[in-house]
Amino acid sequence: MAQPDRSGGGDIPGGGRYFALVTAPASAVTRFLGACRGEVVAWSYFLKMLWDFGRIAYVRTRMNLRSFITGFAGVSGHEALTAYRCNTCEEVVERTCGKGNYTALLGKVAIITGASNGLGLENARCMMKYGCHVVWAVRSPDKAAAALQRLEEREGKLQGKATILKVELSDLRTIKPFVKDFLALGLPLHYLICNAGIMAPTEWLPSPQGFELMFATNNLSHFLMTELLMPKMKETGKTSEVRIVVLSSVAGACCLNINPEKLPCPKEEYHEFAEYGVTKALDCLHAQHLQRHHGSDNIVACAVHPGIIGTGLGQGNIGLTSLLYGGMFTAIFRKSVAKGAATTLHCALSPEVSAQVKSGASFFYNCAPQAPPNIMAPGKNKGLDDRLYERQLELVRPYM
Fold this sequence. Notes:
It is built from 15 helices and 8 strands. An 8-stranded mixed sheet has the order 3-2-1-4-5-6-7-8, sandwiched between helices. The N and C termini lie far apart (81 Å). InterPro entries: NAD(P)-bd_dom_sf, SDR_fam.
């Protein structure tokens, strides 16, 4: 007695093939409808942003239509046109260290925040491959250990060492213990890569200290970490150049103004994209301040815009995620993680960056110095970086 076909079509001869023919178009239609819905969400969010920039007074003080257009279109457009010059992260290390010279960074030590995924993981992988001892500053050591295991299974044993240390960047109470744990290792510090961050929660959220969450995570935590590590970096700078690389964004280039007295952002004036832009502009201005005040200590500090990269950043904001990572509007601006991570290591390792920064460059993308618009333009707001420094120092002083 013939047995029924169990491949998906019941008793129909060749039912599996029939089922596939029926379901394949259905799957394509589902994907198409999903893409259409995503496009509607993306454009709706984009139009809402433009509306907000034009009509909400407290938003316009930080980001308006003009600054958004000059910042986003100016930086993203130029980035897209010059993307052909951007290498992958590994190509940058090969160029600066010599391809196959896997001991080139032996004796060097880096701290990378958020090293367990995305851009941070790619930076850690490439630096370790060429011999660097990378300290993974992460929220979840278990997750980082699993990521490291997968990395070594794929790459083989890397030349450089990984040390995983716990830190919760949203909670300032964890920064000093992290620094204490690092200093206990007795290591120099050649590279501080302030990579981790969050993007545009749809509502105002408090950090454990009651600060707006993006400001606490993206700015105050890295500010405090840098301050506490500065004596170690100055000590290292006596024998070797030190690099500080701060992850900024095109959103920072859209920022028109920052009032130090309004930091952190009050709940009633929160706008997710405008405030994200403030935090990323702060990153760039912090790098400028570091360079101006510590360049004489053999420290080179700069900010980078990695590009628009689908790393899971902003996953809690469906509208912005759809716009940046799914919509047709930004498709030409997107990069892979391998290319997005490249400028960070270019700024950390490339010899020419030192002279460029000392000549006034502060903002890089596509592995080259760029001229940031609006508030991030060096010298545009004389003394603002000092006032922002003093305000942030005031806020973190209880945790030093």
